[in-house]
């Protein structure tokens, strides 16, 4: 009797131990499987994210955009676009000039993706500046330029105003050649004109003269016309076909613009209608990269905005940084 009872108890203990072992084994398997599933899921999510980022990057460096506006910016933007497209052959970037007013109008209307301007959007009538996003990609200096045989290299701001308002009509009045002055202007929509009038002529309106839509043509006419004077961005002074003028003894140089000593300069704005997206955003990011800001930009005669020791607001107020 006692023996039978002991055997029953032993059997019961073996059964309980077996059940406990089975439960422990099952729980361990579930946890391990869960861990494997979670690990696989994590790896898959990471792979998916990486693939998505890669795809987004490739997609944003492809497609087509159109840029228009400032002729002062055109050499820089065109060169940057060529460089970008050589690195990203799936991208097509069309760069047109036409003046700052055109760039601001067209980007506001949505007919171009980026509108370039030498002036703040707030300065142009009829432009919904609050709808546009400003990307200051560079600074450019500007000065008056004359035909090489005019015979002067420096002019006071007061005499410059007299030349452009028609009060002085012959270069001999300033110690130059005995030749009549021919004014070469940009149209009212031009940001180059607005910058030159505001900071070179202190807001005085130029007299009538030859009016040209692009800085390239202005440079050509000055170089071909005896006695001619106009105004150009520093980036156009790549040869001796025209003579850039110092003003009040201050040379028209990048260093003097950066320090604030030379008065005629402007931010180079690239405006988008709302936040930039896709290829437009990728290209604007590229414009702000070291490759452009410290490489192409100075090569093309522009100044990095980060190097400026002064800054200017939409009202034209200049202050030290």
UniProtKB/TrEMBL annotation:
GO terms for molecular function: phosphate ion binding. Belongs to the PstS family. GO terms for cellular component: plasma membrane. Residues 35-48, 58-67 have a biased composition (Low complexity). It is a lipid-anchor. Residues 26-67 are annotated as: Disordered. This is Phosphate-binding protein.
């Amino acid at each position: 009797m006692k023996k039978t009872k002991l055997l029953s108890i032993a059997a019961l203990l073996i059964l309980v131990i077996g059940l406990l072992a089975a439960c422990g084994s099952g729980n361990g398997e579930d946890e391990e499987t869960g861990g494997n599933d979670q690990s696989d899921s994590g790896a898959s999510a990471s792979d998916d994210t990486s693939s998505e980022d890669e795809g987004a990057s490739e997609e944003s460096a492809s497609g087509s955009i159109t840029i228009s506006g400032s002729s002062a910016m055109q050499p820089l933007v065109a060169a940057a676009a060529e460089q970008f497209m050589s690195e990203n052959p799936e991208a097509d970037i069309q760069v047109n000039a036409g003046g700052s007013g055109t760039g601001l109008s067209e980007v506001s209307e949505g007919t171009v993706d980026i509108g370039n301007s030498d002036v703040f959007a707030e300065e142009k009538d009829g432009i919904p500046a609050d709808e546009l996003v400003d990307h200051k990609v560079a600074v450019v200096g500007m000065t008056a330029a004359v035909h090489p045989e005019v015979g002067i290299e420096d002019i006071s701001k007061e005499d410059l105003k007299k030349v452009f308002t028609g009060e002085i009509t012959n270069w001999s009045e300033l110690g130059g050649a005995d030749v009549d002055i021919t004014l070469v202007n940009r149209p009212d929509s031009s940001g180059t004109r607005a910058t030159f009038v505001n900071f070179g002529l202190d807001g005085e309106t130029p007299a009538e003269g030859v009016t040209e839509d692009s800085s390239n043509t202005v440079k050509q006419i000055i170089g071909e016309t005896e006695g001619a004077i106009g105004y150009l961005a520093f980036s156009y002074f790549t040869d001796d076909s025209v003579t850039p003028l110092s003003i009040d003894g201050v040379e028209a140089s990048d260093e003097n613009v950066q320090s604030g000593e030379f008065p005629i300069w402007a931010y180079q704005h690239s405006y988008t209608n709302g936040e930039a997206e896709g290829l437009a955003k990728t290209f604007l990011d590229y414009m702000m990269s070291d490759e452009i800001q410290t490489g192409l930009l100075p090569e093309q005669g522009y100044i990095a905005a980060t190097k400026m020791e002064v800054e200017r607001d939409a009202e034209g107020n200049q202050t030290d940084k």
